[in-house]
């Protein structure tokens, strides 16, 4: 690396894309084909091509123009018909590679004849000429410089087609990454082609988490900009494949606390506008309690099991009855509603005061006395009195609802 760095122009060394280019080249460990024997004392072909590029003074010129001129100069060594086929087969002009049939229809030839013309390009004598290879190497270096030295290659578009064509000409490996429409120049380390994690984890669709794992696995093979781009592409692809249960889990996770299904619906539609849903559908997904979602005991309220919540093992009315009976047996006195709330709060992390009051007041196994005091039904009034008390509570609730 030090030997290569000495070839940088001193005024711009380490301050522009050239440093990134040589960092990318040394990371690739590519093998440029050269017809010279290993004992040849001349500098390597990549060094000589870099000298050619430096002679163009690219830091004072337009890099894309120099790159296009280098590609055109290198292709001038081939016959025009063969070049015409290669450009369309690899999308060098439009960014859209054509099939053998499409090229054949444009030329009035069969697909087999087009295939023979394409093979003549790759077997042509100029590709074994050092001068032609030097031009392609110079074009490849200029292309790297114009993209800031990034090793990533998009799957579509003119940039991706041109980069993959130059890589194929120079035998530079170009590997497609899993889970995203990106290619990486060179043989990537094991951490780059991401694998689907099993079981599913919310960290798999978080840009920072995926980026940090990539940064640890690539061992500086990719720059920070490339890592961010890969992480964003992977997360975007994974988010598109999420089912409804995982999307609801992420909506609850974003809220960060137990929430009513109406609030979960709003958060879900903000996070996933392409999968907007109505409250009824979100409630149906929550009711399945998939991916760590649990009902906390309050009507329409759900949380995540990882927060320490569990689905209640018994109905609220049974819990209130047991609290009143146990407290009444130990003290011998009627049990106040405040005491019921205190004991119920120790057994459940989430409680609704209205639901608890209804479970105590309308409980046929309890008798409500004056002042919101409760006793077990066998210790209180008779069944007829308990029924009249229940009718009184219902009338009070209807009166309160009517006044509202």
Q: What level of helicity do the residues show?
A: 40-55%
Structural category: mainly alpha
State the major sheet.
3 strands, antiparallel
Query: What would the average pLDDT be, to the nearest integer?
Result: 77
Radius of gyration: 36 Å
Lateral strand order in the biggest sheet: 1-3-2
What's the number of structural domains? 4
Which stretches of 5+ consecutive residues score pLDDT under 50?
A: 1-15, 29-43
Q: Kindly, what is the distance between the CA atoms of the first and last residues, rounded to a whole number of angstroms?
A: 80 Å
Shape: rod-shaped
Order of helices and strands: HHHHHHHHEHEEHHHEHHEEHEHHEEH
Number of helices: 18
Count every beta strand, where a strand is a DSSP E run of 2 or more residues. 9
What is the quaternary state of this protein? Answer: single chain
Q: Strand fraction band?
A: 5-15%
